[in-house]
Structure to design on (1243 residues):
């Protein structure tokens, strides 16, 4: 391969001189001198140091000096002296740089002027006496101006009049653009260095660039990667081989995947190689930090570096760093922290008497047995501490406390102890989540944190996907608090025997107590807070990686679609006054477009004619419509009908496509630059068409300096993760697929994809495209494109050359994925398979089946014997390329599924739109009975996202609704819950029943703490209780600012059915309506207020459950009075008894049975425990039965049925008393009694 590069380089020595200074040196500011020649373009000139007429008049008036300015000036050029040849070459090089950057040219006259400035001896004839030059004492020409004369008269003859006037010059790029703009355009010194360095650009752009390893470093790194847990030990040698290819040979991942399969397959996949690439960067960071720590502490005396040298991960580095810092602090003892202060008092000697050093205890914890026995001091700790009392610590207790702090600090900084405790902590730690006051108000069902706002002791290991990221975002918004818990006491009891002496003396017990307190202090104050911080960071990283992976997968699915040929795309607007545009695209370019009136208009006969003519003349392969709204489905139907009417075009598919990409592109700067004169909708249509032409190319247009690719919606949490990490993952998908498909540099559609070719990047790609236009063969990548050997090897095999459009002497292998390094193998295979001696490559391309007779396995074995390495996969790939050069392996296009169409048109996802979600909808009509009864059976609603909703009469209320139109009016906004989603018809079924609104909740986490939620709810309800002294301003005769208890007292003297309205004990947004059911029995009705002007006023709308009322009079008239009338009728029933309880009613029934044994006695009574309900007691045989009859505004509710009269109720009861009693009275259905039922003999 190197011979090929050198050969191509030798053949182009003359062309290599074309490489400009921009490819070798960083840009510097340079001066460009302009000419005053009459043929040059006139430029604006700025006069310096001149006085105007008013200034001269002022001088003449005060000094009597007359000095008028001259009318004409000749510009004096600054003559630079002593310019050597090196400086001259530097200016020429700078001129060349700007010429390359801005595509500007300089005429010969400007160059001559510049040469004159660099060579002062060469004078120009245009300077003469007429130009008002004078000569100074040293015979140098100077220019005299009126300003000079005036100032000389003012200040004397000592004024030095030799002025150098700066010539007017063009601004450099550093003066024109801001630094951030230069970075976007890749014009900084660093960009120039990257562009010119013969190393893959992505290797250089990494935070830690890929570098050559030291001796033995690859083995260490491969072992380190396996220890990280991402790969098993069995693939360690494969990982080492991949690292060698990357770091020693500068081969990028796509090249390794394609041309070094023997080194990776079958154990390692493409995703594994990118993981190794990322881990290589982490290993380099780890190694660099380790080296820096060794460098920092190398001069520190008496420090042990063993743990630092043995460190295998970042946690080990942190532990070793902490130990070194503590030891260095003890050696120098210069700081003024609490630890150093204690050491200076001498208490450190007492700390040495606790029996074990930090390292000994660490070894005990590591091995989980008493490896080192505890040495015991013979003096009790309190007595011993008296010897260390000083001015800072004046008592034995204080001294012991300080000594415990010293020992706990030393233990907490011991790496072995940290490793052991960290492992136990991560295995045992749990998570507890509680909402804050703000969270209680703001976390509703639509919040992703709703199912986790109460968690109790959830193991950290059970966190999945992006759960912790959701919790972390909620905590940042101060909606919840996250607490990491560990059973500290249990863990202490497990490890205390390792720091405990088994003796029964008083002295030993005292020292054991001190050691236990040290362990407790070490864990609670030092280690656990550190480990919690580490754990948070790790969990957040894992959750972010999960989101990034989901985003990359979504992009991969968008990109991995095979292209179409000629595409006709349609973009429309929901604004009926905006025109519709049709664009015809092929090979990524717009061929033609058609402007139509808005396609949503009903009268579109002319539009249909134009569409037919456009389709017939352009003959598209597919017609696509952007998913702007639900109306796109109707447009698709019309287009299919129009296509079906055309005889020769009935097979043209008509597809719906997501328009998110087209919206982003149409509003980007790239779109403005490409189609500045085109309207926004036409740009969208072009993007839709080009997406079907080649989705990979169209999506790549958003990969620019503005990072427009991030404007696409990949995941709900994509804005919560680091932008650079997400962008890097998305670009990896472009790199993988671009190199899988290949790039033709001569096609405009591929210009944005060149940056993703292996070895290249945005900088190298721009330079290459500028140099080679067009590219005739792969060798021109070196001779014309000036690519170095490393970059050429990486990219050559992925560059397509259309050999059909070039001369006959072109190498046909350039049109395949066969790499130039394998051309000799390909020619050898073709020669062995061909029957002739000449044009063997052409023959094999025409008859690739001849290669099937070659024994490639034997050929590969022979290559191994000859020392060419493993080439088996390469040989098979060569044969595949002879059969199908650059075969596109992307998936064929599939029409969107029902779910995908639903997401496109509604912009909803299963996360944002699901069964059980609470939503609001606006009433726009009713659905009526089909039997012609003209009775509304359902409510038609429109949701916020435009979907059609249907609210059936049975789902309006838990109680029976007779007249739907009286209860609900057109224009009302209802709060509903989704109970069914029909994606195919874009319709949802809704419910406004109180039971559904109140009891339907999303699935909660397995560790959800319902008891804590209940306690918080009760606590909140108590806080919201309104005091009786709170006065409401409500002008109504029945309203009183009293409590419910006081209202019941007032009703004692009132008639049955009378009403008192008073403030509610719930909150200021509620009222209580108390009405008298019977003597001593009152029912309290809760009324919810909405639209309140202030706290004291009455709400504009009043709600009882889900029924709305305009004012209090309507509630009394429509709600309370009907119930009172029904209750009055039942109280007046002949079998009514004033019992009030089951026991009393049972006694009435038994006594009646004794009187009339042949009958079934029954009685009805008010039930005191539930005001508003009546109890129906009867004795069919031996056991007495009790059932409830509820009084509602619509009638009597009994066994889920509603009866409008007492007679209808008991007639139905007598006929159906033997029927099974429903377990729950969920709803009441009306029953029409056309005639009186026959009375049974036993009643």
């Amino acid at each position: 391969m190197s011979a090929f590069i050198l050969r191509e380089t030798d053949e182009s020595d003359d062309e290599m001189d074309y490489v400009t200074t921009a490819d070798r040196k960083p840009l510097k500011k340079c001066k460009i001198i302009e000419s005053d020649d009459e043929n040059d373009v006139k430029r604006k000139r700025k006069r310096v140091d001149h006085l105007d007429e008013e200034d001269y008049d002022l001088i003449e008036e005060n000094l009597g000096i007359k000095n008028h300015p001259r009318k004409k000036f000749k510009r004096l050029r600054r003559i630079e002296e002593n310019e050597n040849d090196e400086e001259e070459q530097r200016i020429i090089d700078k001129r060349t740089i700007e010429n390359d950057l801005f595509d500007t040219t300089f005429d010969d006259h400007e160059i001559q002027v510049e040469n004159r400035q660099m060579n002062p001896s060469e004078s120009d004839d245009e300077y003469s006496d007429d130009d008002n030059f004078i000569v100074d004492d040293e015979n140098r020409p100077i220019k005299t101006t009126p300003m000079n004369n005036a100032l000389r008269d003012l200040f004397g003859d000592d004024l030095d009049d030799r002025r150098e006037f700066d010539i007017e010059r063009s601004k450099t790029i550093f003066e024109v653009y801001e630094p951030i703009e230069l970075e976007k355009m890749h014009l900084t010194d660093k960009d120039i260095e990257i562009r010119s360095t013969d190393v893959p650009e992505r290797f250089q752009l990494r935070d830690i660039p890929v570098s050559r390893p030291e001796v033995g470093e690859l083995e260490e790194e491969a072992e380190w990667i396996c220890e990280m847990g991402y790969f098993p030990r069995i693939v360690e040698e494969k990982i080492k081989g991949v690292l060698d290819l990357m770091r020693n040979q500068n081969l990028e991942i796509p090249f390794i995947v394609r041309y070094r399969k023997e080194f990776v397959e079958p154990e390692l996949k493409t995703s594994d190689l990118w993981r190794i690439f990322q881990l290589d960067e982490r290993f380099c960071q780890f190694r660099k930090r380790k080296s820096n720590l060794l460098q920092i502490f190398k001069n520190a005396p008496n420090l042990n570096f063993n743990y630092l040298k043995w460190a295998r991960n970042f946690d080990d580095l942190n532990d070793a760093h902490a130990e070194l810092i503590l030891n260095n602090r003890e050696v120098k003892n210069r700081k003024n922290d609490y630890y150093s202060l204690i050491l200076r008092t001498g208490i450190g000697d007492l700390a040495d008497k606790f029996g074990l050093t930090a390292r000994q205890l660490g070894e005990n914890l590591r091995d989980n047995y008493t490896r080192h026995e505890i040495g015991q001091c013979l003096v009790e700790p309190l007595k011993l501490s008296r010897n260390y009392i000083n001015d800072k610590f004046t008592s034995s207790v204080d001294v012991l406390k300080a000594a415990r702090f010293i020992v706990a600090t030393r233990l907490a900084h011991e790496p072995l102890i940290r490793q052991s405790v960290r492992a136990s902590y991560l295995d045992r730690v749990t998570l507890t989540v509680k909402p804050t006051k703000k969270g209680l108000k703001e976390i509703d069902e639509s919040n992703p944190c709703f199912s986790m706002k109460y968690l109790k002791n959830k193991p950290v290991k059970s966190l999945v996907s992006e759960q912790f990221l959701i919790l972390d975002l909620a905590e940042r918004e101060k909606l919840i608090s996250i607490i990491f818990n560990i059973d500290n006491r249990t863990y202490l009891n497990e490890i205390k025997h390792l720091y405990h002496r088994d003796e029964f003396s008083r002295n030993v017990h005292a020292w054991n107590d001190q050691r236990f307190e040290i362990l407790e202090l070490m864990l609670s104050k030092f280690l656990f807070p550190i480990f919690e911080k580490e754990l948070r960071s790790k969990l957040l990283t894992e959750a972010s990686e999960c989101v990034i992976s989901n985003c990359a997968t979504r992009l991969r699915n968008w990109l991995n679609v095979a292209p179409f040929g000629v595409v006709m795309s349609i973009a429309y607007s929901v604004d009926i006054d905006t025109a519709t545009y049709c664009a015809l695209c092929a090979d990524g370019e717009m061929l033609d477009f058609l402007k139509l009136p808005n396609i949503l208009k009903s009268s579109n006969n002319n539009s249909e004619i134009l569409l037919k003519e456009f389709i017939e003349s352009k003959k598209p392969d597919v017609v696509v419509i952007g998913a702007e709204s639900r109306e796109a489905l109707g447009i698709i139907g019309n287009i299919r009908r129009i296509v079906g009417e055309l005889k020769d075009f009935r097979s043209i598919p008509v597809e719906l496509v997501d328009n998110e990409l087209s919206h982003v592109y149409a509003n980007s700067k790239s779109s403005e630059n490409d189609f500045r004169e085109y309207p926004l909708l036409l740009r969208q249509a072009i993007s839709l068409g080009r997406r079907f032409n080649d989705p990979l190319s169209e999506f790549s247009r958003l990969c620019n300096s503005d990072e427009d690719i991030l404007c696409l919606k990949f995941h709900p949490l994509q804005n919560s993760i680091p932008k650079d990490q997400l962008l890097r993952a998305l670009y990896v998908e472009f790199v993988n697929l671009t190199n899988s498909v290949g790039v033709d540099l001569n096609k405009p559609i591929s210009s944005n994809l060149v940056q993703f070719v292996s070895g290249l990047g945005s900088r190298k790609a721009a330079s290459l495209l500028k140099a080679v236009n067009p590219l005739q063969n792969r060798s021109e990548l070196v001779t014309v494109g000036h690519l170095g050997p490393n970059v050429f090897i990486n990219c050559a095999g992925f560059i397509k050359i259309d050999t059909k459009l070039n001369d006959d002497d072109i190498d046909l292998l350039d049109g395949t994925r066969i790499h130039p390094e394998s051309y000799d193998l390909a020619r050898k295979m073709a020669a062995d398979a061909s029957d002739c001696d000449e044009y063997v490559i052409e023959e094999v391309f025409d008859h690739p089946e001849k290669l099937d007779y070659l024994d490639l396995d034997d050929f590969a074995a022979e290559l191994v014997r000859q020392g060419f390495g493993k080439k088996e996969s390469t040989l098979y790939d060569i044969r595949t390329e002879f059969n199908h050069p650059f075969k596109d392996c992307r998936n064929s296009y599939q029409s969107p599924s029902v779910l995908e169409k639903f997401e496109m048109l509604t912009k909803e996802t299963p996360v944002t739109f699901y069964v059980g979600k609470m939503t609001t909808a606006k009433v726009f009509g009713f659905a009526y009975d089909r039997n012609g009864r003209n009775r509304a059976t359902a409510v038609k609603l429109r949701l916020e996202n435009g979907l059609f909703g249907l609210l059936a009469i049975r789902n309006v209320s838990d109680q029976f609704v007779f007249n739907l139109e009286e209860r609900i009016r057109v224009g009302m906004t209802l709060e509903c819950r989704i109970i069914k989603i029909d994606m195919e018809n874009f319709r949802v079924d809704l419910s406004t029943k109180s039971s559904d609104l109140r009891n339907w909740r999303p699935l909660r986490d397995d560790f959800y703490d319902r008891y804590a939620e209940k306690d918080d709810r009760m606590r909140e309800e108590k806080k919201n209780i309104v005091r009786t002294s709170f006065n409401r301003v409500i002008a109504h005769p029945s309203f009183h600012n009293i409590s419910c208890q006081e209202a019941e007292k007032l009703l004692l003297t009132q008639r049955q059915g009378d009403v008192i309205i008073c403030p509610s004990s719930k909150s200021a947004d509620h009222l209580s309506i108390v009405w008298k059911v019977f003597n001593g029995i009152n029912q309290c009705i809760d009324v919810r207020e909405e639209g309140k002007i202030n706290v004291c006023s009455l709400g504009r709308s009043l709600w009882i459950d889900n029924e709305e009322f305009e004012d209090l009079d309507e509630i009394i008239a429509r709600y309370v009075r009907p119930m009172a009338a029904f209750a009055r009728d039942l109280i007046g029933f002949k079998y009514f008894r004033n019992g009030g309880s089951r026991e009393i009613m049972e006694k009435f029934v038994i006594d009646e049975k004794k009187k009339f044994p042949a009958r079934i006695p029954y009685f009805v009574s008010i039930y005191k425990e539930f005001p508003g309900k009546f109890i129906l007691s009867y004795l069919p045989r031996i056991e007495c039965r009790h059932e409830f009859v509820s009084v509602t505004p619509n009638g009597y509710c009994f066994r889920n049925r509603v009866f409008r009269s007492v007679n209808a109720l008991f007639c139905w009861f007598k006929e159906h008393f033997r029927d099974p009693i429903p377990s729950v009275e969920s709803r009441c259905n009306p029953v029409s009694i056309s005639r009186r039922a026959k009375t049974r003999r036993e009643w």
In short: The chain has a mean pLDDT of 80. Residues 564-693 form a domain with the Nucleotidyltransferase; domain 5 fold (CATH 3.30.420.140). Residues 1018 and 1024 are 10 Å apart (CA to CA). The chain is about 45% helix and 10% strand.
